[in-house]
Amino acid sequence: MTTFAELGLAPDILRALDEMGYATPTPIQAQVIPLALQGGDILGAAQTGTGKTAAFALPLIQRLLPFANNGTSPAKHPIRALILTPTRELAIQVEEAVQAYTKHVPLRSLVVYGGVNINTQIPILKTGVEILVATPGRLLDHVQNKTLSLSQVNTLVLDEADRMLDMGFMPDLKRIVALLPAQRVNMMFSATFPEEIRKLADSILNTPTFIEVARNATAVTVTQVVHPVHHERKRQLLAHLIKSRDLRQVLVFTGTKLGCNRLANELNKAGIHADAIHGDKTQQERIKALDAFKAGTIRVLVATDVAARGIDIEALPFVVNYDLPHNAEDYVHRIGRTGRAGALGEAISLVSEAETRYLRDIEKLIGSTLPPVIVPGFEPGAADVPAFQSRSPRPERHGDRERSAPRSKPAARDALFDAPYVPSETARADSAPALTRPTAKKQVAALFRSPVKPDSAGQ
Ligand code: AMP
Fold first, then answer.
1. Given this model, what pLDDT does residue 311 score?
2. To test ligand 1's pocket by mutation, which of 4, 53, 133 has the most ligand atoms within 8 angstroms of CB?
3. I want to staple 189 with a disulfide (CB 3.0 to 4.6 A). Which of 44, 239, 251, 412 is the partner?
4. In terms of pTM, does the model score above 0.85?
């Protein structure tokens, strides 16, 4: 097995890695580091959790070592490497990683992102930093204010490029790239590779080496479970799973900001300590929630895709898709939050009948089927069955949209619900073979197909 030393990294960097407990390079690191040390452009197909941050940051740092100095003059510390990320959270994390990797070398780094007072960032920029991690909008604010110069940048990294595209950063990216010296090294990483990303790569990268690690594939260490459930019962099922399985550090994804807030409130009412992060929360609120979640004082963090982007929590054990994403690629991003760098993780999806089409898209993208596991008492045909109400001290109030949904016929459907209940430990152990079971997809579809036609239908 390759070691970091064999990849050609300098002793001061190796020392930092050793202190961080990085024993061996991950596959993307083993492939990217030697090439990037040579100064070649790289196009990396890798999702978060593969160790891609170190893959681009370590060679970038090493190539800046000749410029490392303890001088006090700002002129001795121009911005030499620019790392762009789609979100503030990811920017913060990347810069934290850079700080850790540069612990023993005199290279300075800084993160700048929007949503906070720009004036607090200016004094540090003025003292000079070699490595700048930024979100595109705030970077351009600084360029416009002339509070930084990009004229000496020799390395550009675009992290999570597909997300930048989704978030509408393409015009900003183009403006930024136009401000950089033409002579530079470029690295671009993306979890997914739609056509637009390939075009962007063509326009920015110079004959790049394409490195692919588990492209569009979910990390092998993530157990994926699908719980078919009536949409009106999702909140109760989630609370039930968290309590009965004593789940802690659960990252829950919802489709909307409103749903995100509402679910966090409901969980708190059910005695499960939860907080919400989404685009309408201030940066301070998001950081506070994230820190509390990392520290374990909040048990559940409910998030929208954008807010959760790039969240890196050491060995995050559980990710729940409360709403299935409409874009299958988001599923890959979401469950990339768990089972990271070799740790075991579990991705639990609560799937209502209306969401089966999204489930199929996801299965197509990841190239495997997700076995349905019915939780007793939460059979998908049953909405507000009395049995449940006696089980829960707090029956939920449902929103109008949910209440107007047609009721299914639980008794008649039950015959179809033959997917076994798999206790969590078994699900974990069985997950790999189960995912490739060819019949599983049909099984899921069958679960939601009503065998009972309304009386009028046959006439
Ligand atoms: P990333 O995909 O860059 O977000 O990294 C995911 C997580 O894996 C982070 O918590 C890193 O600190 C960690 N990590 C990255 N590379 C290694 C390694 N070679 N050994 C152990 N942990 C690593």
1. 66
2. 53
3. 44
4. no
